[in-house]
């Protein structure tokens, strides 16, 4: 099937493949099977497409073609090919065969599909009892292979044309799994509109290094990279991430490759207890951009170890035992480059005003003039939680960055000694279960951020003395007055309307009495 394909057609075919599992296992379980099979099918189709191209060009010269194929992004052992698995789909042992194929693929590709202690497919097993007893499992996996062998899912580059359509399909699946994933959805997915907004605010530049210490499936990182590709027609940047949950780390690795993001380093591990993005001297790496949507108010984040943190990340104070928000903020601040470093983090609103140790950390960050902007977002934007969140923008060397910004407002230096508050809590398109930020909403927020000026009932530029007077409380309503005066009531008009209604009521009662008399009901 060599007809061109569009994004919607491939998305629908992939979502239909999920029918193989529905009613048998939960979406949280089968998402790994679907996403992994998409990865394997794509690699197999690229390999076969290029092999056939060389065969057409050089004829039946297997040794020459084999040499040419060594330049592929991925080495594909014959036993790991989707088509080998498909040809044997009617035989017993589909689960074991697929697992062995994935293991051989990892072994053939060295560090591409593993980090120092973990491989991409380590937490994903098709040979699992979750799919039922052996006969049922074999049948389900046969159907899965047949789903991906359909002409609609021919993913050869000669047909698809670009990597983006495959990467977009992967994101489409992740979004749909997140939409039905309940509380677990927030573990691996930031809504694309929020990622778009953060990428616009942080304004990635050619040559930037970009990090996400709680990267989930990697979508926020890749949005920042995409900005550089779109604005500079360049892939001169590097993406770094760390993810604590093994199966989600695997999703991030596959997501990077399916989007053509080869210049990445995604580590597996707990960022707070065991940061893995280190320089050659064993210290924390520093980046131009650090961004994250970390888990909200994480319990058991590593409080007991924080007092002895060898990286000095908690020198401003140790966050509360049961709320890890400032643990992630503190880590991110310490990984910013001293001159170009800028940071965007999604937080629950409690981060803005809670007291005790969080209040002391917040005070220190403000006094160091690191906080640049506070943006209040609408409720029900994030999967798994309906609570509204905020975006905090921090900058190292804030005065220099404000003074040299293209759209830094009328007074860059004055703007540097201030914090901009934006109340975008009503900037969304309302949905039944989920609200979304529209392009217009995003543009309004970004334009206000760049102008760095107060806007009536929407934004306020507060100097540091004002924030100090508010005891370093950043609760947005303290700065942005959104109060709308109620329309003055015309009491005389109300009285007149009331008299008219009373007269109408008398007439209705008289009319009703007449009807009752006609029916033979006399009032006693």
Main attributes of the structure:
524 residues, alpha/beta, Ferritin, Rossmann fold, 3 domains, 9-stranded mixed β-sheet, 20 helices, 9 strands, globular
SS content category: alpha/beta
Number of strands: 9
Side-by-side strand order of the widest sheet: 3-2-1-4-5-7-6-8-9
- List the secondary-structure elements in sequence, H or E: HHHHHHHHHEHEHEEHHEHHEEHHEHEHH
C-alpha geometry: globular
Distance between the termini: 87 Å
CATH architecture verdict of the largest domain: 3-Layer(aba) Sandwich
> How much beta, percentage-wise?
5-15%
CATH topology of the largest domain: Rossmann fold
Question: Class of the largest domain, according to the CATH hierarchy?
Answer: Alpha Beta
Mean pLDDT: 89
Number of folding domains?
3
- Portion in helices: 40-55%
Uncertain stretches: 406-410
Note down, in words, how this protein is organized.
It is a single chain. By secondary structure, the protein is of the alpha/beta class. The chain folds into 3 domains: 7-179, Ferritin (Up-down Bundle), CATH 1.20.1260.30; 182-478, Vaccinia Virus protein VP39 (Rossmann fold), CATH 3.40.50.150; 489-524. It contains 20 helices and 9 strands. It has a 9-stranded mixed β-sheet with strand order 3-2-1-4-5-7-6-8-9, with helices on both faces. Strand 1, helix 10 (219-232) and strand 2 form a beta-alpha-beta unit. Helix 2 packs antiparallel against helix 8 and helix 8 (164-179) runs antiparallel to helix 11. The chain starts with 6 loop residues before the first helix and ends in a 6-residue tail after the last helix. Mean pLDDT is 89; it is low at 406-410.
């Amino acid at each position: 099937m060599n007809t061109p394909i569009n994004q919607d057609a491939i998305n629908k075919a992939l979502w239909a493949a999920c029918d193989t599992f529905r009613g048998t296992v939960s979406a949280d379980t089968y998402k790994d099977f679907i996403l992994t099979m998409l990865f394997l099918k794509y690699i197999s189709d690229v390999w076969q497409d290029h092999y056939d191209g060389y065969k057409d060009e050089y004829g039946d010269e297997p040794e020459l073609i084999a040499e040419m194929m060594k330049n592929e992004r991925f080495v594909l052992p014959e036993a790991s090919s989707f088509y080998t698995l498909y040809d044997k789909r009617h035989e017993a042992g589909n689960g074991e065969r697929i697992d062995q194929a994935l293991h051989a693929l990892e072994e053939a590709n060295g560090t591409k599909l593993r980090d120092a202690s973990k491989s991409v497919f380590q937490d994903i097993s098709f040979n699992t009892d979750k799919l039922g007893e052996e006969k049922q499992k074999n049948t389900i996996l046969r159907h899965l292979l047949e789903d991906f062998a359909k002409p609609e899912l021919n993913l050869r580059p000669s047909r698809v044309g670009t990597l983006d359509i495959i990467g977009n399909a992967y994101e489409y699946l992740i979004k749909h799994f997140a939409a039905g994933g309940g509380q677990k959805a927030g573990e691996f997915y930031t809504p694309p509109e929020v990622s778009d907004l953060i990428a616009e605010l942080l304004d990635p530049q050619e040559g930037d290094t970009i990090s996400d210490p709680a990267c989930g499936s990697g979508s926020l990182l890749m949005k920042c990279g995409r900005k550089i590709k779109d604005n500079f027609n360049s892939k001169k940047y590097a993406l770094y991430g760390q993810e604590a949950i093994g199966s989600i780390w695997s999703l991030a690795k596959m997501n990077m490759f399916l989007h053509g993001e080869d210049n990445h380093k995604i580590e597996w591990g707990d960022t707070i207890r065991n940061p893995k993005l280190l320089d050659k001297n064993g210290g924390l790496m520093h980046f131009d951009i650090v961004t994250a949507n970390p888990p909200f108010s994480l319990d058991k984040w590593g409080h007991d170890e924080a007092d002895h943190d060898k990286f000095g990340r908690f020198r401003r104070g140790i966050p509360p035992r049961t709320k890890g928000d400032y643990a992630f903020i503190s880590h991110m601040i310490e990984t910013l480059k001293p001159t170009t470093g800028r940071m965007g983090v999604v937080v629950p609103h409690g981060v803005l005003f809670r007291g005790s140790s969080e209040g002391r950390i917040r005070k220190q960050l403000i006094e160091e003039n690191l906080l640049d902007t506070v943006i209040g977002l609408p409720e029900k934007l994030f999967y798994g939680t309906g609570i509204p969140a905020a975006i905090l923008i921090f900058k190292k060397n804030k005065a220099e960055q404000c003074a040299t910004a293209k759209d830094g407002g009328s007074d860059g230096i004055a703007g540097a000694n201030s914090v901009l508050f934006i109340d975008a809590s009503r900037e969304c398109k309302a949905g039944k279960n989920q609200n979304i930020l529209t392009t217009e909403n995003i543009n309004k927020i970004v334009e206000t951020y760049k102008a760095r000026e107060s806007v009536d009932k929407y934004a306020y530029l507060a100097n540091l003395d004002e924030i100090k007077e508010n005891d370093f409380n950043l609760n947005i309503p303290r700065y942005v007055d959104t109060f709308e005066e109620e329309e003055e009531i015309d009491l005389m008009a109300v009285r007149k309307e009331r008299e008219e209604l009373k007269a109408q009521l008398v007439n209705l009662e008289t009319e009703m009495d007449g009807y009752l008399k006609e029916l033979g009901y006399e009032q006693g």
